[in-house]
Amino acid sequence: LRPPQSCLPPPQLESRRLTLSTSPTALSSSLATVDVPSAGGWSSFTPTFVSTYWGKAPVLLRSCFKFKADGDDGDGDYDAGEFFMTPDDLLMLAESEDASSRLVTLDRATRTYKLEYGPFTPSDLQNLLCKDKLHKEPASLIINEVEVLYPPLSTWSSLSFQFPPNWRRDDCQVSLSSEGAGIGRHVDSYDVFLVQAEGRKEWRVEREMLGEDDELTRTEPRHDVRILSPPE
């Protein structure tokens, strides 16, 4: 999830471009980590987050939002699970002409990323559903502006992210990936708040800031999406 990714590109963008890559499992232990419940919950921790991390440095926030379905008693902050879509909801939305959806698939034979735009049919999304790991290709479904088509997510976004002004908000992007899938090493040109709702995923953050020229130099043209080569 990318709840309000908040934001138009900030001033001096070149000084704040971090490279992000994804693959399934865990996260680098070198990243700053905060256990949000121990810090008083997300509402209490938000001022510290804004002053210390937002737009300044990457941070991993553990148990940032409450989910009663996970055994939480629900005291304090609201149950975020009430506002989120299920994977089945997302797959159905990908079939709609109103949804801004795309599918990124990794071709196992050529090790290249392929990009397709929706709307999709159920057969188009079979790599997301297939249980045969040997024959399916890792795939990620990505839908932008989900809050427009699913109002509960818009409500959750407004409740959870009150610190950025409305003009700096972009949209809520929701993604669903099969095992082994990701969208590759890339740069985001805006401040991003990623929320992992289910499953396991490895997030790797390259600590060196990239300027636009560096990004173009490292872009691998063989992919349908902008993927960067590994750092030297």
Written account of the structure:
With 232 residues, this protein is α+β, with helices and mostly antiparallel strands. The chain contains six helices and nine strands. The protein has helices at 42-52, 87-93, 126-129, 146-149, 151-160, 212-218; strands at residues 19-23, 33-35, 60-62, 100-107, 112-117, 139-144, 174-177, 186-187, 202-206. The chain has a four-stranded antiparallel sheet, with helices on one face. The chain has a three-stranded antiparallel sheet with strand order 8-1-9, with no helix packed on it. The chain has a two-stranded parallel ribbon with strand order 2-3.
Q: Layout of helices and strands, plus pairs?
A:
Layout: E1 19-23, E2 33-35, H1 42-52, E3 60-62, H2 87-93, E4 100-107, E5 112-117, H3 126-129, E6 139-144, H4 146-149, H5 151-160, E7 174-177, E8 186-187, E9 202-206, H6 212-218
Parallel strand pairs: 2-3
Antiparallel strand pairs: 1-8, 1-9, 4-5, 4-6, 6-7
Summarize the biggest pleated sheet.
Answer: 4 strands, antiparallel
State the helical fraction: 10-25%
Distance between the termini: 30 Å
Order of H and E elements:
EEHEHEEHEHHEEEH
Biggest sheet, spatial arrangement of strands: 5-4-6-7
Derived structural class: alpha+beta
Mean pLDDT: 80
Any idea what the shape is? Answer: globular
Specify the number of helices.
6
Radius of gyration: 18 Å
**Count of strand segments:** 9
Strand fraction: 15-25%
